[in-house]
Amino acid sequence: MPINIPKHLPAGELLKEEKIFIMDEERATTQDIRPINILILNLMPEKEKTELQLLRLLGNTPLQVNVTFLNTASYVSKNVSQTHLETFYTTFEHVKNRRFDGMIITGAPIELLQFEDVVYWKELEEIMEWTKTNVTSVLHICWGAQAALYHHYGIDKFELTKKCFGVFSHDITDPTVNLARGFNDVFVAPHSRHTGVSLEEIKSHPDLTLLSASEEAGAFIVISNDAKHIMVTGHLEYDAHTLGDEYARDVEKGADIDIPVNYYPNDDPSKEPMNTWRSHTHLLFSNWLNYYVYQKTPYNWS
């Protein structure tokens, strides 16, 4: 089944080229089924890249998915045109009276700031509180995961001595949990962050379960016991070249940055990196949509 996206969204043509099954809003309204409604709060600076990454994954399920893109009203992104935001995005004020089956809160390159120092923190807190009653399940990614752990469970982040940057091996603690269905016992995933969260605090919290962790990268997938919140501290949604783009950007800025770990063949940046995490990315998103969104959302919210 397809993913339903705005008719002229730029990512649409790229998704078609990749043979991802999509349809525009006009065609979707003629289908007599109950679609899944997903709200995406896109906090990443390069919004169009993130749109493509997430839509590619949401479109690979047997469900029809309606997507609404959300941006903050208290901060306007400098890396995307205002026309793009006005055409394809809305703000919380316009959706707060609606209910959504699922929501994704992305990462943001601001993890070295204290949460309260983030310009849109109060707005994000309001949105996260609203999800308790208006969203069935929320998938939080990277900084979004750290924000959720802090807001909902009081677990703060801490600065790492060295950036966690590369592709790392992870273990699954319980493969019978629906979110991990189909996962290998050991799999790899990308990380790109300057901060971490305490494994001990997560393990000892009565409302949380640590589903996956890495010796090098720490806590990776954390799920609340009521399945309301899923926190993923890395970037399974990244393309093969995303870490390389970030590395090139930092080198150009003159930053003190090492090459991404386990990323380039033979650690040679001149060689083409390969996506070694794609299958688990699709598993994570399809399992989330099926077991935590579709299976749990009432047909009629009222």
TrEMBL record:
The active site is at C142 (acyl-thioester intermediate), H235 (proton acceptor), E237. Keywords: Acyltransferase, Amino-acid biosynthesis, Cytoplasm, Methionine biosynthesis, Transferase. It catalyses: L-homoserine + acetyl-CoA = O-acetyl-L-homoserine + CoA. The record marks S192 as: Important for substrate specificity. The record marks E111 as: Important for acyl-CoA specificity. Pathway: Amino-acid biosynthesis; L-methionine biosynthesis via de novo pathway; O-acetyl-L-homoserine from L-homoserine: step 1/1. Pfam families: HTS. Its EC number is 2.3.1.31. Its main location: cytoplasm. It is found in: Cytoplasm. Substrate binds at K163, S192, R249. The keyword Cell division does not apply. Transfers an acetyl group from acetyl-CoA to L-homoserine, forming acetyl-L-homoserine. Belongs to the MetA family. This is Homoserine O-acetyltransferase. It comes from Sporosarcina ureae.
